[in-house]
Write a structure and sequence with these properties.
This protein is α/β, with parallel strands linked by helices. It folds into five domains: about 70 residues, no CATH class; about 180 residues, 2-Layer Sandwich (Nucleotidyltransferase, domain 5), CATH 3.30.420; about 70 residues, no CATH class; about 100 residues, no CATH class; about 90 residues, no CATH class. Helices cover about 55% and strands about 5% of the residues. It has 27 helices and seven strands. It has a five-stranded mixed β-sheet, sandwiched between helices. The radius of gyration is 40 Å and the shape is elongated.
């Protein structure tokens, strides 16, 4: 007799095991559908036709409802995805109009070097800052913007982070135009450093190049905050800049700095470190404050500077030889007018210890003082303009078109080409010699080349007359002469603009935002050529909101993905049926296999880099939703 106190064991239902569809001994599709008679082969001997009629049933039968769902699935007008797109297009258009107004307001503030923020940006405050006041002005003049429905608080495109992103987009568009102009052509580098109002050391980089129209341009491209001002640290910063913008040091054919030791030093300076990498990156001392203020002109070319250097050397030598007599005469006249006792220059000189020496006063002041100082000046000048640089400048004078190319000299130009061994090989140098003969004969008889003021005008006219294509090697040599830097005036202007952008009242501006504002303020011409559409397109790529996704679509995305999951399941049901003995395993495996392609589709709509699975809470909801479908339908198939 059984003991009634003993508990009867309860049998727990076993969960079905997943079946490997690839290694099944039979085809589950044939088991479910009864073969391919209904789909491929056809049938003509069905003896139970009433079963088909019974299966179809009434209007609300399972068959008719499944048929209606399938038709709705195929019909694009009733697709939930299409309904979302219709609603999103309206919201997206409104957001684009708002963003366009924000871009215009940012353009105005950047162009005028105005601060964006205000002390108090509340609506009740009289002055909310330059940016918001400009937005109000645009709103008052734009009827289409006024008629838009009020956007959500975080979707008005007025936040400071949006302002910084748009300023960065303007900066990147300006850089894009500059580097497209440079292309793979040669250029030179101008660098200088200065401290801002926060006592941060800032290094300004300017590139000098010749554009497609033969015009010389000097463009500001970067302001780098350097923690150290040593030549090694500056060289590393320049290398990082070149790598970031995909510039080649091999295309660098000139460098210009001020006279600071860490920039110009022969052994440890930035000049020497760049020359170690590229021997053709010739250093030309920027003579902004040495020779003449006229060198600060933007259109100053190297031939004019070369003539000034040559004449300055001659004047210094002449002043050393005959200058003391002229100075002595002026001093004697001055002392006579004002009754100042004049020292007898023929008397024996008395030194600082009140002892008479063996030299006269004239010898002391002329030899020991005047000529010693002049020798130091001449040595320093020759150090700034070395023998190679002097030869470079003197040879470039032969390119001058002044006075009907009176200084043209083929031998000097051939010597100039030999200083650039990586730009002219032996074959091209032989070809260059023939080109120079034809070029000189041609341009002297062409009236369009008469009365030119310098090689800057020569390059422009050569492009206008297409002679740069007829004489490409001559034009290449001309560009190498044009890109050599003459003065650091452009770099100094950058620091002047920096004082406007980063002032005492705006001293907490970040380095990235400062760089963007400074680029737009200095390069006003390039800023004017940037279109709002290009800024909006770049903003869509870099901003976290992606493709102007309207507010509300974030939560609707779950329904969009859920509907796509449902569509996958419906297709599965229509293909495999719902009474398969391996339905749960097949459904689970089917959804797992299709999830990657399904996610690629979502990533193509919203941007894969903007919507990573691990960082979105709503993605976890979708995963749970898919697991719910898998478990629920799998369990139901075995009931």
């Amino acid at each position: 007799m059984a003991n009634n106190n003993e508990a009867t064991p309860i049998s727990t239902p076993k969960m079905p095991k997943l079946v490997d569809l690839d290694n099944l001994p039979w085809d589950p599709i044939d088991r479910i559908r009864g073969g391919d008679s209904f789909t491929i082969k056809g049938f003509n001997c069905w003896n139970k036709t009433e079963s088909l009629v019974k299966h179809v049933g009434e209007i609300n039968s399972h068959h008719n409802r499944a048929l209606k769902s399938c038709e709705d699935l195929v019909n694009p007008k009733q697709n939930i995805e299409m309904a979302f797109h219709k609603q999103d297009d309206v919201v997206r258009r409104a957001n684009r109009i708002r963003l366009n107004a924000t871009v215009s307001a940012c353009r105005f503030c950047l162009k005028c070097a105005l601060p964006f923020r205000g002390h108090d940006e509340r609506e009740t405050f009289l002055f909310k800052g330059n940016f918001l006041e400009t937005m109000d002005l645009i709103l008052s003049q734009n009827e289409e913007l006024r008629n838009l429905p009020k956007a959500a608080g975080n979707n008005q495109y007025k936040a400071p982070s949006i302002q910084k992103d748009i300023a960065t987009c303007f900066e990147l568009e300006i850089f894009k135009s500059i580097f497209q102009e440079i292309g793979d052509d040669v250029f030179s580098l101008l660098v200088d450093e200065s401290s801002d109002v926060s006592q941060k050391e800032q290094m300004a980089i300017v590139l000098r190049y010749v554009d497609a129209y033969g015009l010389v341009k000097e463009r500001f491209v970067e302001l780098i905050h350097v923690k150290e001002t040593t030549s090694l640290f500056l060289k590393d910063a320049i290398d990082t800049f070149f790598a970031q913008h995909k510039l080649s040091l091999g295309r660098l054919k000139g460098q210009g700095y001020d006279g600071a030791s860490n920039m110009r030093g022969e052994f440890n300076g930035l000049k020497a470190r760049i020359l170690e990498v590229n021997k053709s990156a010739y250093y030309v001392h920027c003579i902004t404050n040495i020779l003449s203020q006229a060198l600060q002109r933007k259109n100053q070319d190297i031939v004019e500077a070369a003539s000034l250097v040559t004449s300055t050397k001659e004047k210094l030598q002449e002043l050393r030889s005959n200058g003391f007599v002229l100075i002595l005469e002026k001093v004697s006249t001055f002392c006579g007018e004002y009754g100042i006792p004049l020292l007898d220059m023929e008397e024996t000189c008395v030194n600082s210890r009140r002892k008479r020496g063996n030299i006269t006063n004239r010898q002391h002041y002329e030899v020991d003082c005047f000529k010693t100082i002049m020798d130091k000046v001449i040595i320093e000048f020759c150090d700034r303009f070395s023998e190679v640089n002097t030869e470079l400048l003197e040879n470039m004078i032969a390119l001058s078109p002044c006075k009907s190319f009176s200084k043209f000299d083929i031998s000097k130009l051939m010597s100039l080409s030999e200083l650039y061994p990586y730009d002219f090989d032996s074959v091209e140098r032989r070809t260059l010699e023939h080109e120079l003969n034809f070029y000189h004969h041609n341009v002297r008889k062409d009236e369009r080349f008469a009365n030119l003021n310098g090689i800057t005008d020569l390059a422009r006219v050569m492009v206008e007359t297409n002679k740069h294509k007829s004489y490409p090697l001559v034009y290449r040599l001309l560009k190498l002469a044009l890109i050599l830097p003459v003065a650091t005036a452009t770099v100094e202007r950058c620091f002047s603009s920096m004082k406007l952008v980063k002032s005492d009242l705006r001293n907490r501006i970040g380095d990235e935002f400062l760089n963007a504002c400074l680029t737009c303020t200095i390069e006003k011409e390039a800023l004017a050529n940037v279109k709002n559409e290009n800024v909006i397109a770049r903003f869509n790529k870099v901003h976290r909101k992606g493709k102007l996704i309207p507010a509300g679509l974030l939560e609707n995305s779950c329904w969009f993905i859920a509907s796509s999951c449902c569509r996958i399941i419906v297709v599965f049901l229509l293909n495999y049926g719902c009474y398969s003995p391996v339905f749960g395993a097949e459904l689970q495996q089917f959804l797992v296999q299709n999830f990657s392609s399904f996610w690629c589709r979502i990533a193509a709509v919203f941007g894969a880099d903007l919507w990573p699975i691990s960082s979105c809470n709503w993605c976890r909801i979708v995963v749970e939703l898919m697991l719910f479908f898998i478990k629920g339908i799998a369990i139901c198939s075995f009931i």
